[in-house]
Design goal:
Helix content is 40%, strand content 16%. The protein has nine helices and eight strands. Helix 2 runs parallel beside helix 3, helix 6 packs parallel to helix 7 and helix 8 packs across helix 9.
Length: 253
């Protein structure tokens, strides 16, 4: 299993991080991407990636933190990108559910990071919550930039549009939720060579683990649900998600 989106730098893992992460690689987890949300968490992601052979890092500014950027923050981001094992810019995007940063600020910071990714020819990890139209408008303006929509929450039609434009789609534990019929329908718009699996740990634990702190081992329930939708074996589904992650993020097997 390859977990394409985690936050093991989160304080929820402070007590057992150095025990948990090595144990995951003994339980069928083959790779992990730890994703930054601001400069500080991006640096922590790099530290974790450099500590473990099969962990990689993404660096970027989440829409919640967009209002916090100042000064030469893009120069700082550039410095982080030059560190070993950084494979993507993320997570970046728009979040209209909480609006912790104003929408205009979110859009400006999102666009600057899309420009940044285009200049460096790096994939991006997109966060999109209740902002589908504006996120699509933004990514459409940057046709050279590709990446993945993490923890996808859009429609069948949105997934179909993104796949046609070269994007990958990642599904988290939410695809297992009883009320997620529309999301499971959206899965069917994604070819098996464009799908990724993730946990968004410590969040979004899948059924039947809902309410618990999520980790990469619990992703097996998400992969089981995806395998059911694609009508393939667990092994085939897991291998497809893994190989797609390797391809998108340029990770050698």
């Amino acid at each position: 299993m390859f977990d394409s989106h985690t936050h093991y730098d989160d304080k929820w893992f402070d007590e057992d991080r150095d025990i948990l992460i090595p144990s995951l690689f003994e339980q069928g987890v083959e790779g992990i991407i730890n994703v930054g949300c601001d400069m500080e968490s991006s640096m922590r992601s790099i530290e974790i990636a450099q500590r473990y052979e099969k962990v990689y890092a993404a660096v970027g500014v989440h829409p919640h933190s967009a209002a916090e950027v100042s000064g030469n923050w893009l120069d700082e981001l550039d410095g982080l990108c030059r560190q070993s094992k950084v494979v993507a810019i993320g997570e970046i995007g728009l979040d209209y559910h909480y609006d912790y940063s104003s929408r205009d600020v979110q859009k400006a910071v999102f666009e600057k990071q899309m420009e940044f990714a285009r200049e460096r020819n790096m994939p991006v990890i997109i966060h999109d919550r209740e902002a589908h139209g504006d996120v699509i408008d933004t990514v459409n303006r940057f046709p050279e930039v590709k990446g993945v929509f993490h923890s996808f929450s859009g429609s069948y039609e949105m997934a179909e549009h993104l796949v046609k434009r070269g994007w990958y789609i990642s599904f988290s534990g939410s695809v297992t939720f009883k009320t997620a019929e529309k999301l499971r329908h959206a899965v069917t718009a994604v070819p098996i060579d464009r799908v990724l699996s993730e946990t968004d740990s410590p969040y979004l634990s899948p059924v039947p683990e809902r309410g618990k702190r999520n980790d990469s081992y619990r992703m097996r329930h998400t992969i089981e649900k995806l395998a059911e939708i694609y009508e393939v074996s667990f092994e085939e589904m897991s291998n497809a998600c893994r190989d797609n992650a390797y391809r998108l993020f340029g990770i050698a097997k």
